[in-house]
User: What shape does this take?
Amino acid sequence: MTKKKKPMTRSENMSRVKNKDTKPEVYLRKLLWHEGFRYRINYKDLPGRPDIYIPKYKAAIFVNGCFWHIHEGCKLSSIPKTNYDFWKAKLEGNAERDKKNYKELNDMGIKVIIVWGCEIKEMIKDEKIKKNMLLKLIKSINGISDAYRYNLEKYER
Assistant: This one.
Protein backbone atom coordinates (compact mmCIF):
# COMPACT_ATOMS: atom_id res chain seq x y z
CA MET A 1 0.00 0.00 0.00
CA THR A 2 1.35 3.40 -0.93
CA LYS A 3 1.70 6.14 1.62
CA LYS A 4 -0.38 9.25 1.19
CA LYS A 5 1.86 12.17 0.42
CA LYS A 6 1.59 15.59 1.91
CA PRO A 7 0.12 18.16 -0.52
CA MET A 8 3.41 20.03 -0.87
CA THR A 9 5.33 16.83 -1.62
CA ARG A 10 2.78 15.75 -4.24
CA SER A 11 2.94 19.18 -5.83
CA GLU A 12 6.71 18.98 -5.99
CA ASN A 13 6.49 15.54 -7.62
CA MET A 14 3.99 16.69 -10.24
CA SER A 15 6.08 19.78 -11.06
CA ARG A 16 8.97 17.47 -11.99
CA VAL A 17 6.95 15.65 -14.66
CA LYS A 18 8.44 16.81 -17.97
CA ASN A 19 6.52 17.20 -21.21
CA LYS A 20 9.50 17.35 -23.55
CA ASP A 21 13.02 15.96 -23.65
CA THR A 22 12.03 12.99 -21.51
CA LYS A 23 14.49 10.11 -21.22
CA PRO A 24 12.48 7.82 -23.56
CA GLU A 25 12.24 10.64 -26.14
CA VAL A 26 15.95 11.41 -26.04
CA TYR A 27 16.80 7.70 -26.26
CA LEU A 28 14.62 7.24 -29.35
CA ARG A 29 15.96 10.41 -30.98
CA LYS A 30 19.54 9.18 -30.55
CA LEU A 31 18.66 5.82 -32.10
CA LEU A 32 17.02 7.49 -35.09
CA TRP A 33 19.91 9.94 -35.52
CA HIS A 34 22.42 7.07 -35.61
CA GLU A 35 20.27 5.37 -38.26
CA GLY A 36 20.61 8.48 -40.42
CA PHE A 37 17.22 10.10 -39.86
CA ARG A 38 17.11 13.87 -39.56
CA TYR A 39 14.15 15.32 -37.75
CA ARG A 40 12.56 18.24 -36.01
CA ILE A 41 11.73 18.17 -32.32
CA ASN A 42 8.31 19.22 -30.93
CA TYR A 43 7.34 20.66 -34.31
CA LYS A 44 4.90 23.51 -33.58
CA ASP A 45 3.37 23.74 -37.06
CA LEU A 46 1.64 20.36 -36.77
CA PRO A 47 -1.37 19.36 -34.66
CA GLY A 48 -0.33 17.83 -31.35
CA ARG A 49 3.28 19.04 -31.67
CA PRO A 50 4.83 15.63 -32.44
CA ASP A 51 7.84 14.72 -30.31
CA ILE A 52 9.74 13.87 -33.48
CA TYR A 53 8.82 14.93 -37.01
CA ILE A 54 10.72 13.61 -40.02
CA PRO A 55 9.83 15.92 -42.95
CA LYS A 56 11.50 13.76 -45.62
CA TYR A 57 9.15 10.86 -44.83
CA LYS A 58 6.20 12.93 -43.60
CA ALA A 59 6.24 10.94 -40.36
CA ALA A 60 5.19 12.25 -36.95
CA ILE A 61 6.39 10.20 -33.99
CA PHE A 62 4.79 10.51 -30.59
CA VAL A 63 6.59 9.04 -27.58
CA ASN A 64 3.64 8.51 -25.27
CA GLY A 65 3.87 7.81 -21.56
CA CYS A 66 1.67 4.85 -20.68
CA PHE A 67 0.06 6.61 -17.71
CA TRP A 68 -0.68 9.98 -19.33
CA HIS A 69 -2.02 8.58 -22.60
CA ILE A 70 -3.86 5.47 -21.30
CA HIS A 71 -1.92 2.63 -22.91
CA GLU A 72 -4.48 -0.17 -23.03
CA GLY A 73 -3.30 -3.43 -21.53
CA CYS A 74 -0.19 -1.90 -19.94
CA LYS A 75 0.47 -2.33 -16.24
CA LEU A 76 1.86 1.22 -16.08
CA SER A 77 -1.47 2.64 -17.19
CA SER A 78 -3.99 2.81 -14.37
CA ILE A 79 -6.18 5.54 -12.98
CA PRO A 80 -5.17 6.56 -9.43
CA LYS A 81 -7.62 5.61 -6.70
CA THR A 82 -7.35 8.97 -4.95
CA ASN A 83 -9.38 11.71 -6.62
CA TYR A 84 -10.53 9.11 -9.14
CA ASP A 85 -13.08 11.28 -11.00
CA PHE A 86 -10.54 14.05 -11.63
CA TRP A 87 -7.91 11.66 -12.97
CA LYS A 88 -10.39 9.71 -15.08
CA ALA A 89 -11.61 12.91 -16.78
CA LYS A 90 -8.05 14.24 -17.21
CA LEU A 91 -6.58 11.08 -18.71
CA GLU A 92 -9.58 10.39 -20.95
CA GLY A 93 -9.36 14.01 -22.13
CA ASN A 94 -5.72 13.44 -23.04
CA ALA A 95 -6.65 10.32 -25.03
CA GLU A 96 -9.46 12.13 -26.88
CA ARG A 97 -7.18 15.04 -27.74
CA ASP A 98 -4.58 12.56 -29.03
CA LYS A 99 -7.15 10.89 -31.30
CA LYS A 100 -8.22 14.27 -32.71
CA ASN A 101 -4.61 15.26 -33.40
CA TYR A 102 -3.80 11.89 -35.00
CA LYS A 103 -6.80 12.18 -37.31
CA GLU A 104 -5.80 15.71 -38.36
CA LEU A 105 -2.27 14.55 -39.12
CA ASN A 106 -3.56 11.56 -41.12
CA ASP A 107 -5.84 13.89 -43.08
CA MET A 108 -2.75 15.99 -43.92
CA GLY A 109 -1.04 12.88 -45.35
CA ILE A 110 1.36 12.51 -42.43
CA LYS A 111 2.14 9.06 -41.03
CA VAL A 112 1.37 8.94 -37.31
CA ILE A 113 3.66 6.63 -35.35
CA ILE A 114 3.18 5.99 -31.64
CA VAL A 115 5.92 4.54 -29.48
CA TRP A 116 4.97 3.77 -25.88
CA GLY A 117 7.20 4.38 -22.90
CA CYS A 118 7.04 0.73 -21.85
CA GLU A 119 8.31 -0.32 -25.29
CA ILE A 120 11.30 1.98 -24.95
CA LYS A 121 12.01 0.56 -21.48
CA GLU A 122 12.10 -2.90 -23.06
CA MET A 123 14.46 -1.62 -25.78
CA ILE A 124 16.82 -0.24 -23.15
CA LYS A 125 16.88 -3.54 -21.23
CA ASP A 126 17.34 -5.99 -24.12
CA GLU A 127 19.51 -5.52 -27.23
CA LYS A 128 17.55 -8.11 -29.26
CA ILE A 129 14.22 -6.38 -28.52
CA LYS A 130 15.86 -3.05 -29.38
CA LYS A 131 16.94 -4.29 -32.81
CA ASN A 132 13.51 -5.78 -33.59
CA MET A 133 11.57 -2.71 -32.47
CA LEU A 134 13.96 -0.33 -34.24
CA LEU A 135 13.57 -2.31 -37.47
CA LYS A 136 9.75 -2.16 -37.17
CA LEU A 137 9.93 1.56 -36.45
CA ILE A 138 12.15 2.22 -39.47
CA LYS A 139 9.79 0.21 -41.69
CA SER A 140 6.86 2.25 -40.36
CA ILE A 141 8.69 5.51 -41.08
CA ASN A 142 9.52 4.36 -44.61
CA GLY A 143 5.91 3.26 -45.20
CA ILE A 144 6.86 -0.41 -45.64
CA SER A 145 5.03 -1.63 -42.53
CA ASP A 146 2.20 -0.51 -40.28
CA ALA A 147 3.73 -2.02 -37.12
CA TYR A 148 3.79 1.32 -35.30
CA ARG A 149 1.35 3.29 -37.43
CA TYR A 150 -1.72 4.68 -35.69
CA ASN A 151 -4.75 2.67 -36.80
CA LEU A 152 -7.62 5.14 -37.27
CA GLU A 153 -10.19 2.42 -37.96
CA LYS A 154 -9.50 0.85 -34.56
CA TYR A 155 -10.30 4.08 -32.72
CA GLU A 156 -13.06 5.64 -34.82
CA ARG A 157 -16.56 4.90 -33.62
